[in-house]
Amino acid sequence: MRRLVAEMAAAALLFAPIAALLSAPMVAAPASALAATQDGLVNVYVNDVEVAKDVNAGVAALAVASVCELGDPDVATLASQVDQTDRPQPLTCPATGGPIWIVQN
Prior knowledge:
This protein is 47% helix and 23% strand. It is an alpha+beta fold. It has a domain at 39-104. It has a 4-stranded antiparallel sheet with strand order 2-1-4-3. Helix 3 packs across helix 4.
């Protein structure tokens, strides 16, 4: 019986810090902290399938160009804007039958 009590006390000591973290109130980060997480990388999706993950703007442009010939949109600039603003941008592509999305990673 003593061993059981000792094991339960040890388990309580091990899980107490985790329980404290789970019950702590969540605090929103300031916008300046969120802006600091920009890393210059984006993800590219074609018809809800991720075709490029954590790539820079140039690689995103190559990925889009390999899937669809879009004429003259500056995909690298668009990818940089997505990284800076965290706003996904669609590109219309007739070859895929759906949009190509550039999304913040």
